[in-house]
Amino acid sequence: MSALRMIERHHADLRAHLFPGDGLEAAAALVCGVAGRNRDQLLLREHILIPHEACQVRTSTRLTWPGEFLEQAIDAADLIDGAVILMHSHPGGHDHFSEVDDDSDRVVIPVLQHGCQNPRAPHGSAIMLPDGRVRTRIYNESQQSRDVLKITTIGHDIRSREIAAAGSLLAYTSGMTVDLSKKTAVIIGISGTGSITAEALARLGVGRLILIDFDKVEKRNLNRILYATTQDIGRFKTHVLRDAIRLHAPNITVETFETSIGDEAVIAAASEADVLFSCVDSMEGRYHCDLMVQAFLCPLIDMGVVIPTRLRGGKLEIADVCGRIDYVRPGGASLWQRGEVTGGGLAEEYLRRADPEDHARQIQEGYLKGMPEEAPSVISLNMRAASAAVNEWLARLYEVRHDANKKYASTYFSLAAGEEEHAGEPDIGNAWRSGIFGQGLKRPLLGLLNPRETERDVA
């Protein structure tokens, strides 16, 4: 399904510029990265606001502006093999493209298609209404247009901005179920927390689930992977969940990838997501998720659980039973900036992979730190974290909290202390925008050079 995603602050900038209060049309050029396996996902990387005073004609129904701004947009789009969407306002609230808009597109769209270096880029036009809703259409090489069906702003809240958006939906109702049926969720890691997350999303009615995990079911993790039985030992975890979900939710599309998160096909599929759920136990996996948030303007919910142990009086005991849920938004503080991913941690994981025996020991200690345990009994803890993670996404989509969502960037719970704490994002000043922000599937993917590629291949 074709989509346009932008961060909340860009939407606010556009709305303020396009509706300055004088009742006249205004314009902007949107420079968008391109993603999705069908190259129909548009990601607003930057906007060029056309100065009101630069417009030769500016009335309540008509607008013309200098071509120099079009050239700026084309140059910016070429840096990311991207597309250009020309947006203007309809101050009167007319929610369809006018005949004047159609005539303009017949002239300008071919200029974009011939001027930009990416021949497959889905250039198009858009209108914004005074309430912030947007209608967008994109063109193919034959000058045929089609509407972009999903338009979303991502910030502390996640909001639908297309013309047909239902407005504020009541959470946990059948209306929410209908809305979720139009969304795609990617779950990375289908084990302790991942299998529970996938099951919860399926029961909520999320329309498409993409499950990613290269591991197979083993006897030692039967006690924490939903639906896994002794007959599933040796099967891919993704297949076990896929087959189970299809039995109780046949209308849901379930795709699986049995490879690492850095695989090109996985990255392309993940670029279509409305949300990413990180259920991995490695910094490398989290680092890739962090990059996807920025490159694809996709919100991420990362979760982790741990049971630290300690020696007291020569006796080993449980120090705590705790978990963490982080909501990461494009343009906000990343997992790296929050300290959940570090250079030292990535280096340690790389070195550990060079010693398979030590790596296996570390995996056994994945839940109970300082105590090797072949089959930790943690399903209840996993369910606590996975449930909180899924509800965190729902809180961003629908108004369910008494306080503003910006106060809940990170949530920590301790079952031992019977406490739950939450915090906002750390202040990152002007460091919010990375070089890969909104670049989509431009190579090198996620800004990471594939070992099989050279600088010449991706230049």
Instruction: Report mean pLDDT, rounded to a whole number.
Output: 92
Radius of gyration based on Cα positions: 24 Å
Low-confidence stretches: 453-459
CATH architecture of the largest domain: 3-Layer(aba) Sandwich
End-to-end separation in angstroms reads 29 Å
Taken from the alpha-carbon principal axes, the silhouette is elongated
State the name of the first-level CATH class of the largest domain: Alpha Beta
Write down the CATH topology of the largest domain: Rossmann fold
Main beta sheet, described? 10 strands, mixed
Overall domain count:
2
Helix content: 25-40%
Brief synopsis:
The chain has 459 residues and is of the alpha/beta class. It has helices at residues 8-18, 68-78, 99-115, 174-180, 192-204, 237-248, 264-270, 283-296, 343-353, 356-364, 379-397, 455-458; strands at 3-7, 27-35, 41-49, 57-58, 63-64, 83-89, 124-128, 134-139, 145-147, 150-154, 158-160, 184-188, 208-212, 253-257, 275-278, 300-312, 315-318, 322-328, 368-369, 410-414, 419-423. Helix content is 29%, strand content 24%.
Overview of the structural elements:
Strands 12, 13, 14, 15, 16, 17, 18, 19, 20 and 21 form a 10-stranded mixed beta sheet that branches. Strands 9-8-7-6-2-3-1-10-11 form a 9-stranded mixed beta sheet. A two-stranded antiparallel sheet has the order 4-5. With 459 residues, the protein is α/β, with parallel strands linked by helices. The radius of gyration is 24 Å and the shape is elongated. It has 2 domains: 3-160, 3-Layer(aba) Sandwich (Cytidine Deaminase, domain 2); 174-458, NAD(P)-binding Rossmann-like Domain (Rossmann fold), CATH 3.40.50.720. It has 12 helices and 21 strands. The longest helix has 19 residues, at 379-397. Helix 3 links the parallel strand 6 and strand 7 (124-128). Residues 453-459 have low confidence and may be disordered. It has helices spanning 8-18, 68-78, 99-115, 174-180, 192-204, 237-248, 264-270, 283-296, 343-353, 356-364, 379-397, 455-458; strands at residues 3-7, 27-35, 41-49, 57-58, 63-64, 83-89, 124-128, 134-139, 145-147, 150-154, 158-160, 184-188, 208-212, 253-257, 275-278, 300-312, 315-318, 322-328, 368-369, 410-414, 419-423. The chain starts with a strand and ends with a helix.
